[in-house]
Every structure is written in C-alpha cells, then in structure tokens.
Amino acid sequence: MVGIIGSTLMAIVVFVICYALSRKVEMKPNKKQNVLEYLIDFTDGIVKDNVEDPDAQKHLSLYAFVLFLFIFCMNQLGLFLEVKVGDYMVIKSPTADPVTTMSFAMMTLLLSFTFGIQKFGTKGYLQNYARPVGFLLPINVIEEFTNFLTLSLRLYGNIFAGEVLLTLIGGQLGPSMGIVTRILAAPLAMIWQGFSVFIGSIQAYVFVTLSMVYIGKKVTQE
C-alpha cells in the first residue's frame, strides 16, 4: 500500500516535470527544453553503451528515460516527505519497499525475455541458455534469478538504509540529550540528506544501466 501511494505521487510528479519541460518546443531550444534534451541524451547514452542491437535501442530509448526519472524521484521522496498515521507509514520512498524494487526488476527481466524471443525466436532464445557450451545451462538459468535479486535488492537496500539512518538521526539522536544533541543532529541530518540525494541519483543510474546490460545480453548471441 505504501509503495502504491508513493509510486502514484511520483508518477504524477514525473508527468508534471515532463509536461512542463516539453511545452513550447522550439527549433532553438530554450532552457527547459535543454534540460529535457540533456536527460534524454543521457539515458540514450546508457542504452547505446550497453545494447548493440539497433532495433532494441530504438524501443528502449523511452523506457530508459522514464525508468531513470521515475526511480530517481521515488528515491528522493522519503528524504523530504514521510507521512505516518499511528504506527502505519502511509508515504515514504517507494523504493524503500522491496516489493516495488522487485516489480521494477521483474519488468526489466520480462522485457529482456521479450526482446530475446523477438530476436532469435522461442527455440533460438532457449538454446542460448546452453551456449557457449551445454553444461552451462543450469548456471545460466540460475543467473536469471540472481540478476533479479541483485537488481532489486541493491536498490532497496541502499534507499532503505539511508532512510533508516536519517530516522535514527532525527528521531533518536536528536532528542536523546536535549538541546545539545538537537543542535548537533540538525547539521548532521542536512549533510546526510544531501548525501542521500547523491546516492539516490547513483542508484537510479545503476538500476537503468544494469537493466540495459541484462537486455543487451539477451539480444546478443555469444
């Protein structure tokens, strides 16, 4: 439930950002248009660096852009807004919930299967699991599960740990010894928030990059 509410809010935020930046598109880009084009070029670069197939690149361009922007926004939500009703957390970073990150990882893996089957056909795609030698079949199958877990849990672990530490600084260290610790906790919390913004950005980049790596492997025959 927490992930659904936070994800919905961030979906609205991403839509508003894209709508605001893409209004009044001109041949000579204005500042807002430059920001949007920079983001698109940035995510296009990730796709081209990790996916060799031109047809897959064309279809993955928009996916990579939206995925990066969406995950970036979700990573930052809990740093600035947390809503708790009683003992139940209503709003926090959706990516601090493993169900959300596993959903994104599953979406990426399903896309990789789809592109692989489109590229090689069902039989050819399944045969790729036995390449370059047949005894690697079980290892390649296990790799699918490890890819899913590492892709999802890396993002979840980093965002969850950051929010826990921020909660400890503000909720326990701050009031622990009165005014002294409150004064000490304030700059510490601000520093950690800034660092968490950086970590959230890096994790969005890492998630998109690894997603493109996994998909790129599916459309490349070894």
UniProtKB/TrEMBL annotation:
<dbReference type="GO" id="GO:0046933">
    <property type="term" value="F:proton-transporting ATP synthase activity, rotational mechanism"/>
</dbReference>
<keyword id="KW-0406">Ion transport</keyword>
<dbReference type="InterPro" id="IPR023011">
    <property type="entry name" value="ATP_synth_F0_asu_AS"/>
</dbReference>
<keyword id="KW-0472">Membrane</keyword>
<dbReference type="GO" id="GO:0042777">
    <property type="term" value="P:proton motive force-driven plasma membrane ATP synthesis"/>
</dbReference>
<comment type="function">
    <text>Key component of the proton channel; it plays a direct role in the translocation of protons across the membrane.</text>
</comment>
<dbReference type="InterPro" id="IPR035908">
    <property type="entry name" value="F0_ATP_A_sf"/>
</dbReference>
<feature type="transmembrane region" description="Helical">
    <location>
        <begin position="6"/>
        <end position="22"/>
    </location>
</feature>
<comment type="similarity">
    <text>Belongs to the ATPase A chain family.</text>
</comment>
<keyword id="KW-0375">Hydrogen ion transport</keyword>
<keyword id="KW-1133">Transmembrane helix</keyword>
<keyword id="KW-0813">Transport</keyword>
<keyword id="KW-0138">CF(0)</keyword>
<dbReference type="GO" id="GO:0045259">
    <property type="term" value="C:proton-transporting ATP synthase complex"/>
</dbReference>
<keyword id="KW-0066">ATP synthesis</keyword>
<keyword id="KW-0812">Transmembrane</keyword>
<protein>
    <recommendedName>
        <fullName>ATP synthase subunit a</fullName>
    </recommendedName>
</protein>
<feature type="transmembrane region" description="Helical">
    <location>
        <begin position="99"/>
        <end position="117"/>
    </location>
</feature>
<feature type="transmembrane region" description="Helical">
    <location>
        <begin position="60"/>
        <end position="79"/>
    </location>
</feature>
<dbReference type="InterPro" id="IPR045082">
    <property type="entry name" value="ATP_syn_F0_a_bact/chloroplast"/>
</dbReference>
<dbReference type="InterPro" id="IPR000568">
    <property type="entry name" value="ATP_synth_F0_asu"/>
</dbReference>
<keyword id="KW-1003">Cell membrane</keyword>
<dbReference type="GO" id="GO:0005886">
    <property type="term" value="C:plasma membrane"/>
</dbReference>
<feature type="transmembrane region" description="Helical">
    <location>
        <begin position="191"/>
        <end position="215"/>
    </location>
</feature>
<dbReference type="Pfam" id="PF00119">
    <property type="entry name" value="ATP-synt_A"/>
</dbReference>
